[in-house]
Amino acid sequence: MLSYQHIYHAGNMADVHKHGLLAWMLAYLTRKDKPLSYIETHAGRASYDLDAAEARKTGEAARGIQRAQSWFAPDHPFTRVLKQVRAEDGPQTYPGSPMIAARLLRPADTIHLAELHPREHGALTYAMSPYPVTCHQRDGFDMAHSLLPPMPRRGLLLIDPSYEIKDDYDEIPRHIAKFTRAWNVGIVALWYPVLTSALHVPMLKTLSKTYPDALRAEVRFPPARPGHGMIGSGLFVINPPFGLDAEAKRLKDRIDTLN
Ligand code: SAM
Fold it and tell me: Is the CB of residue 140 below 6 angstroms from any atom belonging to ligand 1?
């Protein structure tokens, strides 16, 4: 039974890191006229109210996006999406990754989203109803295996599990190996937590060995609460677009000021 709900963590520093880089990559990809595919294995509900009791309970957004929004220039794609959703849905709205994609991509682009939890899937379907996207209520890895290689062939796959199932750390390199065998031209981005327990480390070792040219964008920040096991955020990007390393370094330099 899944119990993770992203509303408790929406807009935290890990989201700022992941969403800032995701928005940059999607904007980069849309510089070319050619259509693209966006596929996301673990979508969440796409729109978060930072005033909700769950979000206020942890206060993670106050130490995340509320502090970091000025780090992004007014014309940065992440700022553009933040401004749009706040103008339309209220100043405490925070966009999840599917919303960032839906807002930055174009009508000819294709979006597939998987969310397994019935309540989160319902909220995702509602938030995405104005956009031409397909929401699947199924396991995200299964969905990606069935869609790759996608049409259009250019594009990005985001894998953002909640890591509730500890086997995920073992299974993910095997899934990614199959994904890249089926789709060697796609950008594959995996988010992972940096943990005091070092549970993520063997997975990263395997991935770095298999994909020596991938970008490992990793940042550290103070834990959300004293003793909390997550002390940073990582995005492992296979086939990273040109310039992503510089953007990741720029964001890391800002996040480093918190340490
Ligand atoms: N990617 C979202 C974002 O950045 O806005 C956040 C996603 S949250 C970290 C992970 C989500 O994956 C949760 O909503 C959870 O219900 C869902 N989930 C967990 N296991 C899944 C699976 N096997 N397939 C699809 N979704 C799953």
Answer: yes
Output b/e per residue, 57-72; b: 16+ Cβ within 10 A.
Answer: ebebbebbbeebbebb
Reading the chain (259 residues) residue by residue, the pLDDT tens digits are 678 899 999 999 999 999 999 999 999 999 999 999 999 999 999 999 999 999 999 999 999 999 999 999 999 999 999 999 999 999 999 999 999 999 999 999 999 999 999 999 999 999 999 999 999 999 999 999 999 999 999 999 999 999 988 899 999 999 999 999 999 999 999 999 999 999 999 999 999 999 999 999 999 999 988 889 999 999 999 999 999 999 999 999 999 999 8
Find out whether 42 is annotated in a ligand binding site. Answer: yes
Using the mean position of ligand 1's atoms as its centre, give its distance from the Cα of residue 140 in Å.
8
CA 168, 173, 2: angle at the middle one, nearest 5?
Answer: 20
Atom index in ligand 1 nearest the CA of residue 117 equals 16
CA of 233 to the centre of ligand 1 (A): 16
pTM above 0.95, yes or no: yes
Looking at domain 6-256, what is its CATH homologous superfamily? Vaccinia Virus protein VP39 (3.40.50.150)
Domain boundaries, the chain: 6-256
